[in-house]
Design goal:
By secondary structure, the chain is of the alpha+beta class. The chain has one domain: Jelly Rolls, CATH 2.60.120. It has helices at 3-20, 169-189; strands spanning 24-25, 30-32, 40-41, 44-47, 50-58, 61-66, 69-74, 83-89, 95-104, 114-117, 120-121, 128-138, 141-146, 152-161, 166-167. Strands 2, 3, 6, 7, 9, 12 and 14 form a 7-stranded antiparallel beta sheet that branches. Strand 4 (44-47) and strand 5 (50-58) form a beta hairpin. Helix 1 (3-20) packs antiparallel against helix 2. Residues 166-188 form the Ice-binding protein C-terminal domain. Keywords: Signal. Residues 1-27 form the signal peptide. This is Ice-binding protein C-terminal domain-containing protein.
Length: 190
């Protein structure tokens, strides 16, 4: 085997290895907490790179101090209209939700009231951390709070952005060396 053939073979192998290992580094998770948000009703609320928007039915959602922590709740504690919001990235990009604190913060209300986060009903669930593995690469998360007496709350939403994935530096270096080897092998052949 000639030197130029060996250089091409090594370069091709390194380039293939670089492509095969070109995984992405996941963006770190961020916990969206309502502790720094202003207390009271809102129609839109910005939390870092994320935004909660009022869906437009029933009561306005609210941030209230419950048990020493600010939490998202249904603002009207005297009717059954409820509050609905969507969580999305400000830039419209995809994100994932791996968990949140959700559930009843008081006595369990009648079955006419409910709390739904991303399609899961927490009607008879005590306020506690919830883990999700099905909310990946979404562009919006729907949260509905239909209660009487501010019985349901959401807090500490764990999100990670899908838009921030970047190739690992070692993979790029391996791919670059492989392509350089291929180029040198081709140049020597000419």
């Amino acid at each position: 085997m000639k030197l130029s053939q060996l250089a091409r073979a090594v370069g091709f192998a390194a380039a293939c290895a670089g492509l095969a290992s070109a995984s992405t580094a996941n963006a770190s998770s961020v916990v969206l907490t309502f502790d720094s948000a202003p207390l009271g009703n809102f129609t839109s609320l910005t939390l870092g790179d994320y935004r909660l928007d009022y869906i437009g039915y029933g009561d306005l959602p609210a941030i209230q101090n419950v048990g020493g922590s600010s939490r998202l709740i249904d603002s009207n504690n005297g009717n059954v209209y409820g509050a609905g919001v969507t969580l999305s990235r400000i830039d419209g990009g995809a994100f994932s939700v791996s968990g949140y604190d959700a559930g009843s913060i008081g006595t369990f209300p009648s079955s006419a009231y409910y709390m739904d986060v991303g399609g899961i009903d927490y009607r008879k669930t005590a306020f506690a951390p919830q883990t999700r593995s099905d909310l990946e690469n979404i562009t919006a998360l729907s949260i509905s709070l239909v209660s009487r007496g501010n019985n349901y709350a959401v807090d500490n939403i764990v999100v990670s952005s899908s838009a921030n994935n970047v190739p690992e530096p070692a993979s790029l270096a391996l791919l670059s060396l492989g392509l350089l080897g291929l180029g040198l092998g081709r140049r020597r052949k000419s």
